[in-house]
Each structure stands twice: as structure tokens, then as C-alpha cells.
Amino acid sequence: STVICFTLFFFLSVNAQPDFHVLFIYPSNISDFAFSYGNELGRIYMVDRFRNEGITIFTRTITGVDVSEYSDVVAQEFEDVVYDLVVVCGSQFNEVTLDVATSYPDTHFLVSVGYLENVEKKVLISYPRLYMTRYISGVLFASVTK
Hints:
Elements: H1 2-14, E1 19-25, H2 35-52, E2 56-62, H3 70-77, E3 85-89, H4 94-101, E4 108-112, E5 123-126, H5 130-144
Parallel strand pairs: 1-2, 1-3, 3-4, 4-5
């Protein structure tokens, strides 16, 4: 979630525009409290944080997207809105994001928990330090159990 906010700070500093459209694509449901849930908390924080700065960020969230459906979902979403940034969560979307990005020259893509080498400048890869949150979760659970 921090990576998403820093990414948006960068985009907004370069593309000073009052309205910013971001599409979030999650492989799982937000209510399952897995990785998609953590990214959703980041999305909510980001919208509130930028609203306080006078910047409106329009977001759309789609959950339960399989890799085989990804390019079709993006194409369908772009029929109504041209997004400035597409955030997709999960390394399973690495390769397909490179392919999809070529069809949308004015849009940047962020693969959260991705890993790729030699990517285009418009495709960003982040790999947050997941072990930190897992460590803290372990400490918390250990403190409340016998």
C-alpha cells in the first residue's frame, strides 16, 4: 500500500492534473483478508490522503480476476474510462501485464508483488517487504495466545 502511494505521488508530480483515474485488479476477494485486502486498505488510504491535498482520485476495484481474464477485463474497463494507472496485485500477472500495457500507450501499470527484468518504463514492479508484516502478525498472535 505504501508503494502504491509513492507511485501516485510520482505520477501526480509529473502529470499535474486535477483528476486521476486508477484501476485496481485483485486476484482474490477483498473480504478474505489476504493480500488483496491489504492492497485495498492502501487504496482507501491513498484516496483519502490525496483528497486532503485537493486532488481527486477516481478508483475502480475489480476482484476475483484470473490471469486468463485479465486482458479482457482491462479492455472492457477502458471502454468507458481511460485510466492513468492500472494496479494489479500478484506475480501471476507479470507477463500478461507486459502484453496488455502495449495496447494502452497513455497508461502506466504497476504490478504489486511482481518481479520482472527489462520492463518498459510504463510498467512498474514492486515487491514489498512482506516478511515484516508477517513477523509483526506473529508477534501479535503470540502475545494473545498461551
